Structure of 3-dehydroquinate synthase:
Amino acid sequence: MSHSEVKGPVYYQEDGFLKLNAFIKEVNPSKIFFLVDNNTHRDCLAIFLKKLESPENVEILEIEAGEINKNLETCTGLWNALSELDADRKSLMINIGGGVVTDLGGFVASTFKRGIRYINVPTSLLAMVDASVGGKTGVDLGNLKNQIGVINHAEMVIIDPAFLGTLPQTEMRSGLAEILKHALISSETYWNKVTNLSELTLDDLDEIIKESVEIKAKVVTEDPEEHGLRKTLNYGHTLGHAIESYFLTHSEKTTLLHGEAIAVGMILATYLSKELQDFPEDKLKEITVKILDIYDRVVFSEEDIQQIIDLMKYDKKNSHGNINFVLLKDIGNPVIDCKVPNQLIWNAFEYYKKA
């Protein structure tokens, strides 16, 4: 896949920093704004600034880390800061962080003065393989994930797995869920490769990240506006997002990381695939075992399940009041826009409890 096909090309390691410095020389932005959160300010910014050839005319904007801050209030704060710091149409924004920073930073840049250029530097595994590619930007509206946003591509995405050295294990696992999803919708070979984790070294990770990004980039290039194929990237997300939102907004619940919620969503979706698409039962068992090996089991009460089902109707993928699922006929063979009766969703949770 050549870079020219993909809007917002993706570059790796040193190549990325060379491209970035060349881009800055060529475009000559009036000012460069770095958006970081408190974690990436501490762990990543200094590493990044060392790679920059001309770090003058630079401003640093910091937000609080965490999904809970991915909202319009944070955006308003940033729009005000940009105005006060004399940002203009020729300014450049560089987002250094996980999915919250890249999603929100992309949205702030895309809407400030009707759009300034931005670059994403994802520092979490999740953002590398998911949030940074495809031009989806946005924020949450209350407990509804990514309700407000636009599709607008970064000038480039720079992926440097060196940043992963600063990530806690739980965050690595969270990112792995998106890699597992890419595998389930694309190929059994890739699924087998990414689930043999006992042998995963950082070098393997480089290769797996590249492969995962390519799977996503290929889908997004063919269907940028999500009319068909791009919907397959929502595998496990219809229920997964509802589970994540539910746990995020109920203070008595332990908040789940995105990947932890999506892991549950993928088991539920695979069970539904067996019921509605004749997905092979032995593979359902294998997927369930492999996912539960990596992620802790989440406990759901009847009331939790009811509220999660209610939340699904706000999912952006729905139309005309129907909840649309992506299901699998087999690994690597997804089917979009599947209608699922509520009773089957209850059965899927029952299956998950007993698995």
Summary: The two ends are 40 Å apart (CA to CA). The chain has two domains: 3-167, 170-354.
